[in-house]
Amino acid sequence: MDFTVSDKMQTILKMINEFVEKELFPLEKEFVKKDFHELLPLIREKQKMVREMELWAPIYPPELGGMGLSMVDHAMVSEALGRSPLGHFVFWCQAPDAGNAEILHMYGTKEQKERWLAPLVKGDIRSCFGMTEPDMPGSNPVMLGTRAVRDGSDYIINGHKWYTTAADGSQFCIVMAVTNPEAPTYAQASMIIVPTDTPGFNLVRNIPVMGHEGTDYASHGEILLQNCRVPAENLLGQEGHGFIMAQDRLGPGRIHHCMRWLGICHRSFDLMCQRANFRKITRDDQTLASRHIVQQWVAESAAEIQSARLMTLHAAWCIDQVGAAKARDEISAIKFYVAGIMQKVIDRALQVHGGLGMTDDTILAYFFRHERAARIYDGADEVHKTAMARRILKRYA
Amino acid sequence: MDFTVSDKMQTILKMINEFVEKELFPLEKEFVKKDFHELLPLIREKQKMVREMELWAPIYPPELGGMGLSMVDHAMVSEALGRSPLGHFVFWCQAPDAGNAEILHMYGTKEQKERWLAPLVKGDIRSCFGMTEPDMPGSNPVMLGTRAVRDGSDYIINGHKWYTTAADGSQFCIVMAVTNPEAPTYAQASMIIVPTDTPGFNLVRNIPVMGHEGTDYASHGEILLQNCRVPAENLLGQEGHGFIMAQDRLGPGRIHHCMRWLGICHRSFDLMCQRANFRKITRDDQTLASRHIVQQWVAESAAEIQSARLMTLHAAWCIDQVGAAKARDEISAIKFYVAGIMQKVIDRALQVHGGLGMTDDTILAYFFRHERAARIYDGADEVHKTAMARRILKRYA
Amino acid sequence: MDFTVSDKMQTILKMINEFVEKELFPLEKEFVKKDFHELLPLIREKQKMVREMELWAPIYPPELGGMGLSMVDHAMVSEALGRSPLGHFVFWCQAPDAGNAEILHMYGTKEQKERWLAPLVKGDIRSCFGMTEPDMPGSNPVMLGTRAVRDGSDYIINGHKWYTTAADGSQFCIVMAVTNPEAPTYAQASMIIVPTDTPGFNLVRNIPVMGHEGTDYASHGEILLQNCRVPAENLLGQEGHGFIMAQDRLGPGRIHHCMRWLGICHRSFDLMCQRANFRKITRDDQTLASRHIVQQWVAESAAEIQSARLMTLHAAWCIDQVGAAKARDEISAIKFYVAGIMQKVIDRALQVHGGLGMTDDTILAYFFRHERAARIYDGADEVHKTAMARRILKRYA
Amino acid sequence: MDFTVSDKMQTILKMINEFVEKELFPLEKEFVKKDFHELLPLIREKQKMVREMELWAPIYPPELGGMGLSMVDHAMVSEALGRSPLGHFVFWCQAPDAGNAEILHMYGTKEQKERWLAPLVKGDIRSCFGMTEPDMPGSNPVMLGTRAVRDGSDYIINGHKWYTTAADGSQFCIVMAVTNPEAPTYAQASMIIVPTDTPGFNLVRNIPVMGHEGTDYASHGEILLQNCRVPAENLLGQEGHGFIMAQDRLGPGRIHHCMRWLGICHRSFDLMCQRANFRKITRDDQTLASRHIVQQWVAESAAEIQSARLMTLHAAWCIDQVGAAKARDEISAIKFYVAGIMQKVIDRALQVHGGLGMTDDTILAYFFRHERAARIYDGADEVHKTAMARRILKRYA
């Protein structure tokens, strides 16, 4: 057993950490206050710097211009970027583009790669992923209402999607739709590339989430597909393989999210400790840090973050060793475990800040309201616990 | 021991509940989306209906046009109104105006009452209360940086306040300021009425709270008092009595808040149960309500709400019987206890709603982000626990 | 709404509290160390004193020599007695005898009352209640393996019971057995009085619970009924009414238990506060009471106990007003709510005692290990939550 | 980063696991029921088997006949042994002997090693460690009342100890006593070897812990040292170095305990899953395993155990890499974190067992009551959290 981080990774992480602190933390007040699209010019500048440092899209495979990191190293990069809500986007590792690129890389035809993947990894276009449906439990990817029917050399797609993250401003959407309704449950759906300017692909609204509709990348779209016609060559992979391909992006995606959450934990923890040291609460200048209850929160948070971090790195290591399919339990466990700890850590950090914590003068209030979603998306906590427990209990039968 | 609610109160509560459901619930989507001042015309209509039903300002004493309710009955009214974020405002029972009116009623001179109290209870003007300061722990009302210095027949006030709720659009502010810096700690501060158009009374900004600066009543102001000069007759009560008068509003204010939170609990609970019954999660139409974990949340929430409710009603009863000063423990306890339960209940209700819970399509996301403040304002949980425990432990010495 | 306790009850409770403190607390060290039957002579002395004070069996109806208390008053008596594990037994209000007496009083024939009830309420004999079975979920009273078959003028009973509390030394057992296996589920079982010296009624062992088998009243028996023959006139109430009669004892029994647990909470809380004040932890004589984390526990425990207490008294009041059947939700809620709070309060009190808390030098270690059962007997927490939630959710359908 | 376990260790762990399951699990019912000394003959047989398997005292350095394991490997051995309360004793790795042997090995003179260490590692004698005092906070090793005064070539020791684990039947005790009361706080105490048959070394009683005084190894002694005279050559290490030497045993001792607790977690988890699969709760044979709430417990427990395990292995690895002194935070964190998780896991397993869980028919009730001490000994949770937090907060200053 060896917990050593390689020298190379230590160097990369140091560079990223410094960049995030120096270049991105100061942008956050604007980020919280303004529409995302207003921020884009500033973000483009920072992205230019990232390219110049040769840290662009670090989690991508080398053939796509990335660093070809192992899952463990990928994880630590995601953690460093996660300390700011702008980190992943500025370094071009953001969901759902990263996952879409991976799918295109694995399953795309030469033409699909040229048209969609190449500009995507360069940062010239953005994309979205249309899976979740308002009338279906998001946690159950085999329950889909969207249908794609073959009509000559085209597919005609009808359906209703929401929580299509970053649809606003995307050039294409990978849509999950049932193509084979008579097939067995897990073989009914396919992935189809739908350019967002296709007639019948309607972005109804950016969903108002926690008080904001958002814009551009920082938004979640509700989409109506109404007789939306795309050529059959836009099928990604094989018909009926949609669910299997979705599973492929799950393992790495989970690591990605969990380590991003750990970045948020680190940031919140830092802010908590700094505030506790700074805030005077008595006339003789005792600080919040002198209070045992604050100390309990510091110690508990440190322990919980450490435990969640090791668990996620271990899950990443399992994926590196045996693949995501055999690491299902490890991957399920981190989903709910890390999300739960993040919520606790943010909550304590906010409480230590008192009234200030409720304001947008720190990033904590943003974390508090938006990261609440972590316990819901990609399968609610309860769904993962149930699935994981059933597998475990079977082994005891 | 008798938990009966009088027939009269049952009738009043029924009227309020129906009005809130029928007239206010439908306004909430606008409330969450728009600036408060845009909503004012609609709100004025509803307020007119309330006056016509003779339910205007029900918690005020009869001589101010209210119903002269006992604290227990007052509590139940606040609970009913709390189910909507618009309830208290539409029925004109909202903080901080209710507390300010009470202070003016108890301590105001005839002239002060005529000029400020009369239009306030009628709903013609609004007011704010300037106590909390950004550089001082909000939980410690004896630590104030604001100074009011006597200069001839005037006071000149300098200081920095924030979280001055509803300052935007208020006609006057009751400012807590140190007038007697040499006096013992609890006798240093006074309350002074400051018209908001006084030169030197500067509303710097509406603080951005959980993503929104808000407007008008739905805002929290940051205020700089810079050589702000008001006539000495604006002193409210006696010099040095500011802290004692602030305590007076504490007991009833606490009941008011806690029962409002219980209203939020009821609302969240209702939404949770309705959603659990409605949301199908399997192909054979099983609902979330069939899941034991959801059932656990329903049962636990019901029990917790009931326990918190009885505790708050008991504290109200104690105030009715022996006064707020002798009911300090009861009042401290509900502050943190009810706030904690509210946060849990909202969190569960949101989780049951899944992705929908994160959106502003229900009121839950608003409750989730804004009512987080309940564990902070009027003294953070930890401050109340410490104060209460010290009193208790002394009795065992 | 009125939380006043009558003068009469205040006097009774004061007498009980003083007696428990002065006469019973000192016995506890022996109680924890010795077999219960060794303690009986000492206990008999205390019971004599209770009779002389005319406080014998206070919760019984007047016609049985008790005080005929309302359920609310009964509850407060149980709370006072619960502060010591000897309280209920010394005042002769202990389970399962109190419940058995109630059943006999309500359903017994004249002969049954003369033979069993009269000596039971006088304290001349003891009894047990044979319901729970090792092979059946204790939480489901309609799943019973024990069979009673009519044979001429007798019943022949076969079955396997356990957790038959206080079987050791009992003169009779009220056995729940299926008499009508073809009847609808809730009409299959009957209650039959079985003298414990009946051939075929075999006390296999006192179950070792938390390290001790116990003796006499302080024990839980495992019983094999092997062709155990009793005359048909030992049937209690009507054939097939066993389940309904069992429900009758449920409401009051629940109040009884919950208030006993609250007595345990009060005792543990007192010990915690006393220890916190006493225990020095630094060279300059600071005590545990000066630590904020201990203060948090004190405040949280005080609030939780208060909330649980009011909830239980309210449930008792509901039983007084509308009967147990209509107060099912209130009764379900207190079962799991109060048990959970008791476990937390005991745990904190133990922690404040450090190593001492693990020893039998205080009563806390006894409470910690034995009262863990509160979350299990009479239906596990989870069972009550599920049942209660289903009733609630139905109302939202 | 590499989580691989070496082939050699996998083999050793497999052997230990099988032995523990096959030979020790069946002894546990006797262990719970009988005095430990009655069990000794049976235990000796098992120890003989362990020697024959060449697994005797595996955690000792090779020069003491052990395997010279790294701290990480040592940790995994302790985990495997911890699944049974008899594991460590049968494999001769039990506290406090293991720690005492280590101290003697590091600091003992040749004569001390011959007389005490040699028979100790062979299993011919046992020992105890006299540190904790009833009148001093156990968590503060620099507060000691015991005094050792030099008198000619002897020390005369007076003091009062308790929780001297396994004193009953020990041949010697390493006593912590103040020898240099004028020295700085951390340089006042020394360790002195006191043969237990020395006049003035009085084992007052075995402390009754959770209902049992215990005997022999399974006991905690209260000891009065009354003018207890030992030759000065019994001093272990140097005068005034007692505290530093105690720290030396801390790091490894902590790993040892935490991994033992993880063994208890694994065992409890296994029992929970087995019971959930076995226990039928409906007439159509649904089991507890089908209940979502049980599934939540299974998944949460699995995740928590995994997180605690990785954290402890990481702390062990840090000790291997940089020594215990530099791994203080890692070592503090596991103390409270693992203890807390163990308590939760045991509690859930017990709850799943229902009434059976309260009995001594499984090992869970033993774990429940005795392992509650984990949050207290070697420094209560709160003490570790405070110490750890203060170090962390300083880094942010």
Describe what you observe in this structure:
Four copies of one chain form a homotetramer. Chain A is an alpha+beta fold and 397 residues long. Chain A has three domains: 7-99, Acyl-CoA dehydrogenase/oxidase, N-terminal domain (Butyryl-Coa Dehydrogenase, subunit A, domain 1, Orthogonal Bundle); 127-236, Butyryl-CoA Dehydrogenase, subunit A, domain 2; 243-395, Butyryl-CoA Dehydrogenase, subunit A, domain 3, CATH 1.20.140. In chain A, 51% of the residues lie in helices and 15% in strands. In chain A, strands 2, 3, 6, 7 and 8 form a five-stranded antiparallel β-sheet that branches. Chain A is globular and about 80 Å long. Chains A, B, C, D: It comes from Desulfobotulus alkaliphilus. Chains A, B, C, D: Keywords: FAD, Flavoprotein, Oxidoreductase. Chains A, B, C, D: InterPro entries: Acyl-CoA_dehydrogenase, Acyl-CoA_Oxase/DH_mid-dom, Acyl-CoA_Oxase/DH_mid-dom_sf, AcylCo_DH-like_C, AcylCo_DH/oxidase_C, AcylCoA_DH/ox_N, AcylCoA_DH/ox_N_sf, AcylCoA_DH/oxidase_NM_dom_sf. Chains A, B, C, D: Its cofactor is FAD. Chains A, B, C, D: It holds the Pfam family Acyl-CoA_dh_N.
